[in-house]
């Protein structure tokens, strides 16, 4: 069998499930975050989008933490030996960059909202107290970080998706090992 067509050890069903649930959530969060601020939106629509965005962001943060714990407990099998070293390093750098930027986005969003004195409905329902003081200056700083960090996050997502598509086209087993744990999985 050609080395490039070998089926590499698949990632566990839990790893693939966590990956795709977070991917769908994150891809939805970005346009919702931009659209919810547009003028001319009906108030109930805008309120609903804010609620979805804020609470979705908290869920993204929890998923990232869960994924990091899962990853530490069950490290990913190595990438195929035919991949050039620089590609393996770049893939790892982009993945860690994504984890880092998701944490920055979620924490800056949380601080922006809490320091601004606004609710995070899910946490309020669970009686989780605000973990930052009320401060307009802090809210403004967090807003600036949240707004600018999205460009870095989007750039990393584009590189990550681009590389994944290259593997899918090359059919070298890398894309299929992260395929959702349904159908082909
Ligand atoms: C990984 C998770 C998150 C992503 C990818 C994300 C993404 C975004 C994006 C792309 C925007 C538009 C920025 C702009 O137009 O300047 C935005 C805005 C916003 N986000 Fe998030 N966000 C996340 C988490 C959160 C969380 C956890 C909260 C609050 C609990 C939050 C609250 C907000 C708010 C209030 C805005 C409107 C801008 C503002 O008034 O500060 N976000 N978000």
From TrEMBL:
GO terms for molecular function: electron transfer activity; heme binding; metal ion binding. Its cofactor is heme b. Keywords: Cell membrane, Electron transport, Heme, Iron, Membrane, Metal-binding, Transmembrane, Transmembrane helix, Transport. GO terms for biological process: respiratory electron transport chain. Gene3D superfamilies: Transmembrane di-heme cytochromes, Chain C (1.20.950.20). The chain crosses the membrane at residues 17-36, 56-74, 94-113, 151-169. It is found in: Cell membrane. InterPro entries: Cyt_b561_bac/Ni-Hgenase, Cytochrome_b561_oxidase, Di-haem_cyt_TM. GO terms for cellular component: plasma membrane. Residues 12-180 form the Cytochrome b561 bacterial/Ni-hydrogenase domain. This is Cytochrome b561. The lineage of its organism: Bacteria, Pseudomonadati, Pseudomonadota, Alphaproteobacteria, Rhodobacterales.
